[in-house]
Amino acid sequence: MTEPAIEVNDLTVAYHERPVLWDMDVRVRAGALTAIVGPNGAGKTTLIKAILGLVSPAAGRIRILGRKYREARREVAYVPQRGTVDWDFPTSVLDVVLMGTYGGLGWMRRPGRKERERAEAALEQVGMEAFAQRQISQLSGGQQQRVFLARALVQDASVYLMDEPFQGVDARTERAIVEVLRHLRERGKTVVAVHHALQTVPEYFDDVVILNVRKIAAGPVAEAFTEQHLRTAYGGRVPFLQGVAPSPPATPGVQESPDPAADRRGTFSGGA
Amino acid sequence: MTLGELLQLLLFDYTLRTVALGTAALGAVAGALGCFAVLRRQSLVGDAIAHAALPGIGLAFLLTGMRATPILVLGAAISGWIGTLFVLGIVRSSRIREDAALGIVLSVFFGLGLVILTFVQRRPTAAQAGLETFLFGQAATLLAGDVVLIVGVGAAALLLLALFWKEFKLLSFDPEFGASVGLPITRVDILLTSLLVVAIVIGLQAVGVVLMSALVVAPAAAARQWTDSLGIMVLLAAFLGALAGVGGAVISSLGGGIPTGPTIVLGASVLVGISLLFAPRRGMLAGLLRERSTRRRLAADAVLADLYALAAQHGETTEYGHPVAVLRAMQGRGGGVERALARLEARGLAREVGAGQWSVTEAGIERARNVFLPGGDE
């Protein structure tokens, strides 16, 4: 196996003494599309933010392309949840996409023509080139999402971290995003996306990480995305599952997490 | 006094010119930096900084025994800064939310400031004369040296704003994304807040601690109404701030000792009021007009739907006329049907085939099919 794009070891994150991620080990395969799934409050966003260095973990080690985030920053692009910003902010679509170039510009330097051309190209990739001069408050939810995606594409990274890119978008946007994801994979990029719609996981993604504070399962969709793992994560209530998710022959023991010992370690070592 | 005489005074009266230049400069700086406070939903931070500056003014005087403006402004800046840090510290280390933290810091520092000022006033010397103008502001007390300080420090603050423009914009719009691309968010935040502190303390002598925050918030709120570009918003807010500053200063200088703070706030309020009411797109008037035209279009569409339904009973013909009374009965209300018909006629969707007899047109059928059939409306 080649070197993982992202390697998370023994990651524990807590807010106000309550653990949101517990003793998490994740390896993200380079050049693959990986979905992070789990119920609300499972720590999906926290995992993304921890990888980005936006939350400081209580314990654990994170490596991106074998380096610390600080050193690998230029190789990482980020698509936050679109609900985290004020879309009434007085700025244009092109301006928001240009923010993706800020990281490479350095202090006080303004984006110039070269940056503008890159931003326009990124807007074209998501089918939003006609909206470049539009004020961002005039966009629909799906258009907002595509603008955020374009901003990440401008970063021209190797690893793309996306927080719910499909959340509440229209069918057209969903197709556009899927196309962008596949295009990224063709170019050898790594994508990790928090994903809510379980039924589309097998269609859109190669790998999956199922979590609920702890890691429940991780690996290629065909192996890890099983009914039993999902029931473990969602507490038995997975209504959509009837006839949708792959249900491999019931062979208890095989469907356990790839490394059951790793999952249980947290329970016994306790007392953090 | 006529406008001409006022203009002449502004141009040639040395005192008034000095005062006007000073208040224009501090209004412009407060307006420009206020935009970021407003966009980051930190409008109250300006109020807390201004109130928190008061003890610094008193202490600076007590420690140095001098009334020199630079010393008092420095004291105000340090004290305002400490107040801001307190807010940040309270929010970070406790479960108290920012609004409560701002309220605590604002009132505690202001109370402390009042105690110190009272103590200073009781001292037998006359050196402290005029410190109380820092409460409500008195632009007439601005001397040429004060104006030089305001213009110099204010220009430096605006220069830094221009230099760190994209960093400040990213901090204000999407700080987490900023952090992910390597922007040292905390340091940029500290810099921007420091510039806001500067913008506020250079205005305290003329506007006063009580009302200075109005000059931070009002021009920015007014400017936001007129534009969707951050650059234009900042320029416009600077201009409006200068306008309010000069207007307030002139009125207070003419009118026998009215404090400047209230007059500036009144001027700024007028600007905000006009902007809230009359701005295109975002203004309340524009909103009302939009709403009315939507309501009328919907009313016309409802009548069109009825006309179409009637025509459909006759094989979608456009030849039969239907009396207004029938349409009125179908609408289930009296008024508005004639007006709706007139609007439909103007848009070529309906026509009067005989006296009081109306029919849908081909274009009307086309539109009715497009609009009503998929949704099954009416």
Task: Write a structural description.
The complex is a heterodimer of chains A (272) and B (378). Chain A has 272 residues and is of the alpha/beta class. Chain A contains 11 helices and 9 strands. Chain A has helices at 44-51, 69-72, 93-98, 102-105, 113-125, 141-154, 171-186, 201-204, 221-224, 227-234, 260-269; strands spanning 6-15, 18-28, 33-37, 59-64, 76-79, 159-163, 190-194, 207-212, 214-220. Chain A has a 6-stranded mixed β-sheet with strand order 5-6-7-3-8-9, sandwiched between helices. Chain A has a 3-stranded antiparallel β-sheet with strand order 2-1-4. In chain A, strand 6, helix 7 (171-186) and strand 7 (190-194) form a beta-alpha-beta unit. In chain A, helix 5 crosses helix 6 (141-154) and helix 6 (141-154) runs parallel beside helix 7 (171-186). Chain A is globular, with a radius of gyration of 19 Å. Chain A starts with 5 loop residues before the first strand and ends with a helix. In chain A, 43% of the residues are buried. The model of chain A is unreliable at 247-272 (pLDDT under 50). Chain B is an all-alpha fold and 378 residues long. Chain B has 2 domains: 16-281, Orthogonal Bundle (ABC transporter involved in vitamin B12 uptake, BtuC); 286-372, Winged helix-like DNA-binding domain superfamily/Winged helix DNA-binding domain (Arc Repressor Mutant, subunit A, Orthogonal Bundle), CATH 1.10.10.10. In chain B, 75% of the residues lie in helices and 3% in strands. Chain B has 19 helices and 3 strands. Chain B has helices at residues 3-12, 14-39, 43-52, 54-64, 69-93, 98-121, 133-136, 144-163, 165-173, 175-180, 185-201, 204-207, 212-226, 230-254, 260-278, 284-313, 324-331, 337-346, 362-372; strands spanning 322-323, 350-354, 357-360. Chain B has a 3-stranded antiparallel β-sheet with strand order 1-3-2. Chain B is elongated and about 100 Å long. The mean pLDDT of chain B is 88. Chain A binds chain B through residues 49, 52-54, 70, 73, 76, 78, 80, 84-86, 89-92, 96, 99-100, 102-103, 105, 107-108, 110-111, 135, 137, 151, 155, and chain B through 39, 41, 163-167, 169-170, 172-174, 176-183, 224, 227-230, 233.
